[in-house]
Amino acid sequence: MIKKTVSLTAEGKKELEKELDELIKNRPAITERIATARAFGDLSENEEYSSARNEQKIAESRILEIQELLKNAKIIRNGKKDKVVLGATVVFEMDKRKVEYTVVGPTEANPLEGKISNESPIGKALFGRKPGDTFDFNDKKVKIIEIK
């Protein structure tokens, strides 16, 4: 099995570690729900039991996924502000609107939180550019104003 390195910001790593801790802390509560539901009797028609087992499956899958991500994580350190790289926060103008995004790896991407993937179309278009650069993106003019 080929292990893929996962690029994470220090903040993204902390968020994953926090989520992992919460999932691990919740294990006993899920186990208790399963035991309580099992006591109700016939498991074939026991919705409480099915629901608790499903919750356990989802939690255990996510725990394994996060552990694998953290094991293969490469922490992004961005000290330079001369061009768009992983971890850089970019302020740019598009359609006469100022937009600000942080360029992160796909694992952390969440546009609603202002984080775009370096593998997304706009992430690829921004990558490597410098303040003052202008380019066309989806028939729109984009100008990079600042890199934080």
Q: How would you summarize what this structure contains?
A:
Helix content is 41%, strand content 25%. The protein is α/β, with parallel strands linked by helices and 148 residues long.
How would you describe what is shown here?
The protein is an alpha/beta fold and 148 residues long. It folds into two domains: 6-75, Transcription elongation factor, GreA/GreB, N-terminal domain (Helix Hairpins, Orthogonal Bundle); 78-147, Roll (Chitinase A, domain 3), CATH 3.10.50.30. It contains three helices and seven strands. A five-stranded mixed beta sheet has the order 5-4-3-7-6. Strands 1-2 form a two-stranded parallel sheet. A hairpin with a 2-residue loop joins strand 3 and strand 4. Helix 1 packs antiparallel against helix 2.
CA gyration radius, whole angstroms: 21 Å
Q: Please, what is the average pLDDT? A: 91
Please identify, by name, the CATH architecture of the largest domain: Orthogonal Bundle
Largest sheet: 5 strands, mixed
Q: Tell me the distance between the termini.
A: 37 Å
Structural class of the helices, strands and pairings? alpha/beta
- In CATH, the homologous superfamily of the largest domain goes by the name Transcription elongation factor, GreA/GreB, N-terminal domain
Q: How many E strands?
A: 7
Oligomeric state: single chain
Q: Give the low-confidence spans.
A: none
* Strand order in space, largest sheet: 5-4-3-7-6
The third-level CATH topology of the largest domain is: Helix Hairpins
The level of helicity is 40-55%
Shape: elongated
